[in-house]
Amino acid sequence: MLRTILWRDDKVAMIDQTKLPGTLEYVEYDDYKGVADAIRNLVIRGAPAIGIAAAFGMVLAARQSQAETLEDLLHDLNVARMHLGETRPTAVNLVWALNKIYDTARLSADPNTARTAVFDQALSMAEDDITTNKTMGRNGSQLFNDGDTIMTHCNAGALATVGYGTALGVIRATKDSGKSVQVVATETRPVQQGSRLTAFELMHDNIDVSLIPDTAVGYAMANRLIDKVVVGADRILSTGHVYNKIGTYQVATMARQHGIPFYVAAPLSTFDMESEPKDVVIEMRRSMEVSGPPGNRTAPEGINVLNPAFDMTPPELVSGIITEAGVATTPYVESIKKLFKANF
Ligand code: MRU
């Protein structure tokens, strides 16, 4: 299994996902601003992986700071928190991780204790990510049957987390429980996390996967080629509204049309229990991702482009939300509240 991000030789090392599927290599950072650029430019992506990258970014910021008092260190960490927090607005794990690290420093006695504490906290968050995904995988595996063909959209795998994955973690655990499953991955235009990352990751781990264009989702479902769908999430509200990669809403709507169960797998750190749909910022990305880069354009020069990175799937289209604390089902408000109560 791929390990997306780790700490080595006083630096953060991460797989450069912009080079996949052609080249599998790690890139290292010793400056928190470099980590922020890596998140913004999709060197690392996927909500849980972004959170852990930001946590290690804060460790670097604490080490880069010359502060001799806790107050000065907290000031420098706050600057880093704002800088890292501005990189991607939709994935809530980013804010969750930044606040967790900042609070760890705030509760320390002095700057050096704080530097050690934030480092320990980031390391344990990275290890917890894998444990959480494995538990989530086991919880979700019970929803899938031997012989199922499972559609997934985007990449919610090891590459979107520290390791193992959320939606792909459920698929891994289903397979590990002795059931045979096949995966259908959508390309996931415009950035192609499905063809570049999910197809690569599953083939790397010997999991049966086929690739379809996003436009073939209706065809595949109408022709009974899909038994179930599982995707990840960037943010889930207390009401069960799910924010995930652009196109997820289309997949969920099509699944409902054909009576196919549509599941979401995400850790509790992806839940935003405070916001309402009107508060959630959908990241708008560069038009070039859609119209093609200079020299390789696929649309005419000067065309207007709308490029939202995420969309919202309403709770009525979601058959269940798989978490490390159990599976939430409709009515989501009560069910999600129960999962949080049992876990905190
Ligand atoms: O733009 P990306 O590649 O960061 O978007 C990733 C997704 O939408 C994933 O499905 C989501 O973050 C869940 S990852 C476990």
Written overview of the protein:
This protein is of the alpha/beta class and 344 residues long. Helices cover 42% and strands 16% of the residues. It is built from 11 helices and 14 strands. The protein has a 7-stranded mixed beta sheet, sandwiched between helices. A 4-stranded mixed beta sheet has the order 11-8-9-12, covered by helices on one side. Strands 1-2-3 form a 3-stranded antiparallel beta sheet, covered by helices on one side. Strand 5 (182-186), helix 7 and strand 6 form a beta-alpha-beta unit. Helix 1 packs parallel to helix 3. The longest helix has 31 residues, at 111-141. The mean pLDDT is 98.
Fold blueprint:
Elements: E1 5-8, E2 11-15, E3 26-29, H1 32-40, H2 47-64, H3 70-85, H4 92-106, H5 111-141, E4 149-152, H6 167-176, E5 182-186, H7 193-204, E6 209-212, H8 217-222, E7 228-231, E8 235-237, E9 242-245, H9 248-257, E10 262-265, E11 271-272, H10 288-291, E12 310-313, E13 320-323, E14 326-328, H11 332-343
Parallel strand pairs: 4-5, 4-7, 5-6, 7-10, 8-11, 10-13
Antiparallel strand pairs: 1-2, 2-3, 8-9, 9-12, 13-14
Bound molecules: 5-S-methyl-1-O-phosphono-5-thio-D-ribulose (MRU).
Give keywords.
about 350 residues, four-stranded mixed beta sheet, about 40% helix, binds 5-S-methyl-1-O-phosphono-5-thio-D-ribulose, alpha/beta, 14 strands, seven-stranded mixed beta sheet, single chain
How would you sum up this structure in a few lines?
The chain is α/β, with parallel strands linked by helices. The protein has eleven helices and 14 strands. The mean pLDDT is 98.
